Amino acid sequence: MLAYFLRRLFFMIPLLLGITLISFAVIHLTPGSPTDIYTQFNPKVSPEFRQRLIKLYSLDKPLYIQYWMWLKKLAHLDFGRSFAPDARPVWDKIKERLPITVGINVLAMFFIFIIAIPLGVMAAVRHNRFFDKITTIFVFIGYATPGFWLALLLMMLFGIKLGWLPLSGLKSLNYESMSILEKSGDIAKHLILPVFVSAFGGLAGLSRFVRSSMLEVIRQDYVLTARAKGLPERVVIYKHALKNALLPVVTILGLSVPGLIGGSVIFESIFAIPGMGQLFYLSVMSRDYPTIMGCLVIGAVLTLLGNLLADISYALVDPRIRVG
């Protein structure tokens, strides 16, 4: 098992380098420049000042030299300084926002698993019956609904029309004057809509996956044997069938991470949540290359760690994976 873990860990290094190389090239080859924010609409800016900015940001050097300079800094865990007017270290910006994004995604994943697994099991047990058809419709709605559209719809309904939930941010204006209990309730109210939007698509997909896996397992001979022995249906389903049906679901844990992190850019921007997704969006809009690369590296590392966790979990439950 240790050799398998080290092998998987080693393969992550070239993969991460490949991700950073492609991302760096794509970002720098897109139209626009970080200097535009200072010079494009300011007639007082001289061409000499623009050239000094380009030299200050090392944008006058060939792309491969810029990448090598960035990579050497990354080797010392230095993400550089932001091109934004505050010129703060990129890592300081990320570490302020990373816990918010990770916290929302962990909450979303928690709700996805505790709702989707029972939903998928019940749909499989009631195959082709009314409940199964209702969940199938729910799944199609979940697949077809764009996250940004759902977010705007919920904001109009619960935030504007009914006034039950706050529209944006993580805290109310009078947050500092609240008691600890009120502060917890205030943050929870602000998180309801973002977490729901983040979990909705994954909930539909995972429940469908669990349903398919359960349908395959409950047709196996050992499940028929358990029923023939006269075991109660609850024991057959939840003790014998579900345990084996959940093995493929382990891989979903790792595969869900990229989608959730990518979705953070949408719902954090719409709900004005000061997380890493919003930071990434603002950085792209201002061509803040160091911050964009910092967000991409953190996102890639989280994704690779999620995949590693899924591989290790799967290897623990199925020894053939370790041998292969």
TrEMBL record:
Q: Does the keyword GTP-binding apply?
A: no
Its topology with respect to the membrane? Multi-pass membrane protein
Q: Where are the transmembrane segments?
A: 9-29, 100-125, 137-160, 191-210, 245-271, 291-317
Q: Which UniProt keywords apply?
A: Cell membrane, Membrane, Transmembrane, Transmembrane helix, Transport
- Family matches, as Pfam families: BPD_transp_1, BPD_transp_1_N
Start and end of every ABC transmembrane type-1 domain? 98-310
Q: Name one GO biological process term.
A: transmembrane transport
| Subcellular localization | Cell membrane
For whether the record's keyword set contains Manganese, the answer is no
| One GO cellular component term noted in the UniProt record for this chain | plasma membrane
By sequence similarity, the record places it as follows: Belongs to the binding-protein-dependent transport system permease family.
What is the recorded name of this protein?
Answer: Peptide ABC transporter permease
Q: Which organism is it from?
A: Desulfofervidus auxilii
